[in-house]
Amino acid sequence: MNAHMTLATEKDMANAIRALAMDAVQKANSGHPGMPMGMADVATVLFNRFMMIDPADAAWPDRDRFVLSAGHGSMLVYAINHLLGYDDMGMDQLQAFRQLGSRTAGHPEYGHAKGIEVTTGPLGQGISTAVGMALAERMAAARFPDLVDHYTYVIAGDGCLMEGISHEAIDLAGHLGLGRLIVMWDDNRITIDGDTGLSTSTDQVARFAACGWHVQAVDGHDPEAVAAAIAAARADARPSMIACRTIIGFGAPNKQGSHDVHGAPLGDAEIAAAREALGWPHAPFVIPGEVYAAWHAVAARGASARTAWTARHAGSANRAAFDVALACDSAPLAAPMAAHKAQLIADKTKVATRKASEMALGVVNAALPFTAGGSADLTGSNLTRSKGMVSVTRDNYAGSYIHYGIREHAMAAAMNGIALHGMFRPYGGTFMAFADYCRPSIRLSALMGLPVTYVMTHDSIGLGEDGPTHQPVEHLAALRAIPNLNVIRPCDAVETAEAWEVAMAATCTPTLLVLSRQNLPLLRDDAPENLTARGAYLLRDPGRRDVTLIATGSEVEIAMAAAEALAATGVSAAIVSAPCFEAFAAQPEAYRAAVLGTAPRVGVEAAIQQGWDLFLRHKDAFVGMTGFGASAPAPALYTHFGITAEAVAATARDLIAKG
Ligand SMILES: Cc1ncc(C[n+]2csc(CCOP(=O)(O)OP(=O)(O)O)c2C)c(N)n1
Ligand SMILES: [Mg+2]
């Protein structure tokens, strides 16, 4: 920076955001200028006076986190990151807004550019993910008080606050007393359809207050008021919500304040009028040096904070433990897990896979110091809590077990936030039938490539008496349909242990464990390599085969019994256990061909057939579910729905007879 250069005012800093937003949206002929223009003043005050980030070290662990929950306003964060000087956010990127291959995706995408802490766009996800980030910050600070001390700032719109997930999230944040979480609500009273009065009458300030938040309301175009509110929010021990009354599209003289500026280019005439009204004479994509200088000063302040932190880290007695937590390396799991599997095989352990998961988790949680467990109020059913795990509470963030309450969606989003924050590997449980309550956040785990582990128990009609409301039927197919999600349905305790190894070794793929309520026999008699990581493998290889039976989870036992029945009549059946379709699909063709063979195939799974085309050809057969389950003891249901060894054997004989 030129030492003699005067810094631009905050008004100019904010107008730079406005200009870049309207020009980039105009050039792309697509995007949302209203929100960045309306919140430019608030965002400028936040960054100029408070945010501690270093664009030269975007992953600095103790940086403040910024979450643009109103992701449609993506140009706000792209403009800011450009102005701050992130080296991957040159003007070329802003000019390529929303174009193929640019970092400036339609909505902010984690991993596409530095300084984007989370993928947002599905409204409500950002604020809820931020709760996980703020929780992880407190948990990390409890362990490393000299090295962790930062804030999570969120900009959320009317839409984020209307989405149901926001309620789960603010309720949880208030309960856990996440004082480092500060939400700035863009209170512009406009959504796409028009006035918020069309669809809501909620007093949001009262709602947040009722959840235990510190609340304030300010004029979002008054920088001093905004700054005072942020300062007060930081000082308060509760999470804070600042209602920032703003005018959407601020500066566009004929369109501001109207839903017309929400999501459409302003047009050349209105942009020219806005330049006039804002006193911004510069050409499109031209930013004066003194405006850059002012923004670069923000980066410089962050850089010196980071330098000071680096020195603290170098001298900290906690340094080694901190680095271990930051690395989240699963290598220490290998030896104890090998011993655990050997013991299971020696004991012929017959347990439900949810119980096997609890046993595996005992090993995981003992070996890896960075797990953060939890359940959505089903701890005793999901079996997610290992002995000795201490609950995380507002008075003790040093715990490692989170009671998410009956808030599956916020649990999933918070787990994304915990994973994004770093230093913890989150896992959390619920009944598999309620995976749908988590689904939008599971999808974001997969899209962002976060190593989150979902523990979904009670995985089929095998749960029995609770009936069809609780019996997953279509869920496996629906979850397998999500790209980059490893859905693992282990058949016994050894596969369950392997599944946990896969989950903990993952770095950019979430894992969803599908676990039985009912007991299952141990089917594996050795564990030479992690066969679950192969996705599917020959559990019983008769050499010559007349038929191949392919099954997952609790139905592998049924396939085994069918194979025995077939053997008694001279029919030779191979058994393929297929715990993870995604992993199998990624195996080399030769491996897949060897596992599947050329004989007729029967798929067996107590779920719908959709997705089984990975294994089954047109002429092959499937034994499973075609509709909802029913209330009855599990054995009666398996008989009722025809998912039995006899049915599988009969189906196999039919196929062989057809040739
Ligand atoms: C879950 C979800 N539903 C719908 C949308 C589509 N959408 C994008 S922005 C928006 C309106 C949001 O209103 P608000 O948050 O007030 O934003 P503003 O118009 O003030 O910028 C909608 C419905 C979405 N992105 N996510
Ligand atoms: Mg709005």
Instruction: State the major sheet.
Output: 6 strands, parallel
CATH superfamily of the largest domain: Thiamin diphosphate (ThDP)-binding fold, Pyr/PP domains
In the predicted model, the low-confidence regions spanning at least 5 consecutive residues are none
Q: Could you say what the CATH topology of the largest domain is called?
A: Rossmann fold
- The total domain count is 3
CATH architecture of the largest domain: 3-Layer(aba) Sandwich
Number of helices: 24
Q: What Rg, in angstroms, do the CA atoms define?
A: 27 Å
Q: How many strand units?
A: 20
Note the beta-strand portion: 5-15%
Mean pLDDT: 97
Characteristic terms for this protein:
659 residues; 5-stranded parallel beta sheet; 3 domains; binds thiamine diphosphate; 42% helix; elongated; Rossmann fold; binds magnesium ion
